[in-house]
Design brief:
42% helix; single chain; 6-stranded antiparallel beta sheet; globular; 25 helices
Length: 611
């Protein structure tokens, strides 16, 4: 795990210390710089694999130079498969040798998380690439023939000072995150997952190549025997976990909640190593999963730590937590993620997690209705009856209650616009309050993607899972976890995002994932082999954050200070009166949704103030 930065045709001087200091938390162990012609490459290293000097970067090999962030978990398998020999066991060197052998077709062979810049000095080509899911970030500033790229937006902004993109910020407020390539800046894009850029460093011409599309696997539905599918999934996950343990020269730990995903990862990891450290979060006032997690820890004899988070420093830390992202971030679970990563780093440098399981296997309750009803193409009767019932029913205020579930179901059942349907079913922020915007959200890319996906001959559930993989997982959840872990120089590894899992899970029939009202059925069945019975029927909870309480108490003063400031940014995009009425509770809206909107706008202001 590392930080990378680079420039092509950038005419302004760069102080190495500015780059290295800005990315030091991503790579505190070593820093390196390479310069040739009009290209500069920078690297900060967190040494995890091949700890000797042979793993240092930028790495050169036969006219190729690379700065690499991430891990290729199967790289030694690939060396054996293709007869590649070297004295160093560095996965970075494996990338260079594989490129010599097959060029960028090598990406299809990799099981890993990665963002890298590979410079072919003989042919004057730069390749910027990301992994299938987009676990490792890469942002690219491109204006005319100039390119600047970075693992983090904060460092890129300090160097290039791009202008703010107000249209993009309007879309952020509506969706709750920057969708796909979008960032808060003009001329700055996020390189998408499963893509690489091929840049001619002489002419500045650039091609954006999509090398992996998960939608291809959703469209290729298979009909395996259920028992065989469980057995196959068992083997795939075991291999994924083993690779993520074996490809570390440091001890590997595991985040362990009381749920199935992290429980399966932990159980399989414990079978691979006798010194597994596990970590569970305990938050006062929320559902306590630590007792369930402890049952798994005892069953597998792990070195278990319960991380108790009381958020006593929240008011002092909140601006730093948000600012770490380099862009507005409405996901309030970034707060406990930050704290648990900080505590885990005291014990470990590499940690496994269950990221991706819910989006691939149908882990959220909102997937259940899409299994049974096509909400992407609702009938007129469905829309009209849903609107009438929603207008008559009291606003739902209990986050985990069945009434809230039904109320939200009726809400997005009342829309015909695909963007409203999707946003209502996911982030649920400004849908229904479009009149509050001064700068209307354009939503061009997400609208186009939704329309394209809705035309596919796949089920409504698959459409929602596909959108969530490309939107919620890529643009929000993986970003959140990367920032939280790397803020503390901690590497997070996700077996559920392994190459073989991403090729296996999308094609499974819907009833392998949602069975009647039960979520992720196939994982629950597999869990019976490994986990205590009490865990199997547990609903998906995630971090149960007392956001309503924070907005009205602990964070009330700082939120009001930002939102009521005369020079705020949001009032250029949405009506300030709307936010003031929201604060004063003059708008008919649930307490939870009110808190989410206020936090979303607050995050925008914190990001802007700390530029």
């Amino acid at each position: 795990m590392c930080g990378i930065f680079g420039t092509i045709n950038y005419e302004y001087p760069i102080e190495n210390s500015m780059i290295f200091n800005g990315l030091l938390h991503r790579g505190p162990d070593e820093q390196g710089h390479y310069s040739l012609y009009n290209v500069n490459l920078y690297h900060t290293r967190l040494a995890i694999q091949d700890l000797s000097v042979t793993g240092q970067q930028p790495m050169e090999h036969n006219g190729l130079v690379i700065v690499f962030n991430g891990e290729i978990y199967n790289h030694m398998e690939l060396r054996e498969k293709y007869g590649l020999k070297a004295s160093s066991n560095s996965d970075t060197l494996t990338i260079l040798m594989m490129f010599e052998l097959m060029g960028m077709d090598m990406l299809e062979e990799f099981d890993g998380m990665f963002a890298f810049a590979l410079y072919d000095t003989l042919n004057f080509r730069m390749y910027l690439a990301r992994d299938r899911a987009g676990k490792k970030p890469l942002y690219v500033y491109n204006k005319a023939k100039t390119f600047v790229f970075s693992s983090e937006l904060n460092v890129l902004y300090k160097k290039c000072r791009p202008e703010i993109d107000y249209s993009s910020l309007a879309d952020y407020l509506y969706v709750g995150h920057h969708y796909r390539k979008a960032t808060p800046y003009l001329f700055v894009n996020e390189l998408e997952n499963g893509h690489y850029l091929k840049i001619d460093t002489l002419t500045g011409l650039c091609d954006d190549v999509c090398w992996f599309k998960i939608e291809d696997y959703y469209k290729a539905e298979r009909y395996p025997d259920y028992t065989d599918a469980v057995t196959q999934l068992d083997g795939i996950l075991k291999t994924a976990v083993k690779r993520r343990i074996d490809s570390s020269d440091l001890d590997v730990g595991s985040f362990l909640s009381g749920g199935i995903d992290s429980g399966l990862v932990t159980a399989m990891a414990a079978e691979q190593t006798s010194k597994l450290k596990t970590f569970t979060v305990k938050v006062p006032g929320s559902f306590d999963e630590s007792a369930l997690a402890e049952k798994v820890a005892k069953k597998y004899g792990t070195d278990h730590t319960v991380v108790e988070i009381d958020f006593s420093d929240l008011t002092n830390d909140i601006e730093k937590i948000i600012s770490n992202h380099g862009e507005p971030n409405s996901d309030n679970s970034a707060i406990p993620s930050y704290y648990v990563a900080r505590e885990a780093k005291k014990h470990i440098t590499v940690v496994l997690n269950g990221d991706g399981a819910d989006e691939l296997f149908g882990g959220y309750r909102r997937y259940v209705p899409f299994k049974h009803v096509d909400f992407f193409n609702p009938s007129q009767f469905t829309r009209i009856s849903s609107r009438i019932l929603t207008s008559l029913l009291p606003v739902a205020n209990q986050k985990q209650s069945n009434y809230t579930y039904i109320y939200r179901l009726l809400k997005f059942g009342g829309y015909s616009d695909l963007v409203k349907i999707y946003c209502s079913a996911s982030s649920d922020l400004f849908v229904g309050f479009e009149d509050a915007f001064l700068e209307k959200p354009k939503m061009k890319v997400i609208s186009s993607d939704l329309a394209r996906i809705n035309d596919y001959s796949i089920s409504p559930l698959k459409k929602l899972l596909l959108m969530d993989f490309d939107s919620m997982l890529f643009s929000r959840l993986l970003t959140k976890m990367d920032i939280a872990t790397m803020a503390h120089s901690l590497e997070g590894r996700s077996p559920f995002l392994a190459k073989e899992v991403l090729e296996f899970a999308p094609g499974l029939p819907d009833n392998f994932k949602i069975k009647k009202l039960q979520t992720k059925d196939i994982l629950r069945t597999l869990g019976k082999k490994y986990l205590p019975a009490e865990l199997i029927e547990q609903p998906k909870r995630g971090f149960e954050i007392p956001l309503k309480k924070w907005v009205d108490h602990e964070l009330k003063e700082i939120i009001n200070t930002y939102l009521m400031a005369p020079d705020n940014l949001y009032s250029k995009i949405i009506k300030k009166d709307f936010i003031m009425d929201l604060i004063a509770r003059k708008i008919k809206i649930s307490d939870e949704r009110r808190a989410k909107i206020l936090f979303c706008v607050f995050s925008l202001e914190v990001w802007h103030k700390n530029l």
